Amino acid sequence: DAGVTQSPTHLIKTRGQQVTLRCSPKSGHDTVSWYQQALGQGPQFIFQYYEEEERQRGNFPDRFSGHQFPNYSSELNVNALLLGDSALYLCASIIAGGPYEQYFGPGTRLTVT
Amino acid sequence: AQSVTQLDSQVPVFEEAPVELRCNYSSSVSVYLFWYVQYPNQGLQLLLKYLSGSTLVKGINGFEAEFNKSQTSFHLRKPSVHISDTAEYFCAVSERRINAGKSTFGDGTTLTVKP
Fold this sequence. Notes:
The structure holds two protein chains of two kinds. Chain A is mainly beta. Chain A has strands spanning 5-7, 10-13, 19-24, 31-37, 44-50, 53-57, 64-68, 74-78, 87-94, 103-104, 108-112. Chain A has no helices and eleven strands. By secondary structure, chain B is an all-beta fold. Chain B has no helices and twelve strands. In chain B, strand 10 and strand 11 form a beta hairpin. The A-B interface holds A 4, 31-33, 35, 40-45, 48, 50, 55-56, 58, 90, 92-94, 96-97, 99-107, 109 and B 4, 32, 34, 36, 41-46, 49, 51, 90, 92, 94, 98-108.
């Protein structure tokens, strides 16, 4: 049973560029959440997708956008990259309605130079 | 809105000693409570969760936690730690709702187990 997978593992971008990160949820899961984890901090919620729509959003600017596909996989897009966007981006999946246990992927390490 | 405070940023302990990692939370609504572990350059792994029922929750790797509603705490304990328990530990809460995937995390506690 494959868990949550993310690609790429590492990414280096330049300020002002755009980036797309990808996530495949755990088999059977239909809801995907994205988190940003800066160095030395806990993960911060970016947004959540369910039934191909953004359902909840954290305190992130609209430079951060996403998409969910019919197969439940998801993308996170970040436009106009800033140095402060350098972080580990984590994807987590869950089954809507329970049993309320998030499974996390290994993350994508984004470095903005 | 919810907030989570992990009271110790670093906890050094000797191998085979007991350990407690402290977590307090604040929320205006009912929440689910979680502890996760993160090893270097990896994602988060769920240690245990409190959804309802018994306030003492047992998890993987010999960890347990106790939910105290009056003190809004969810402290993590292990009676005897191993070198392999060295990692970052995160306490998190999620609002009780159908799509409960939005979690608020603390800033983490670094547990270092020394021989």
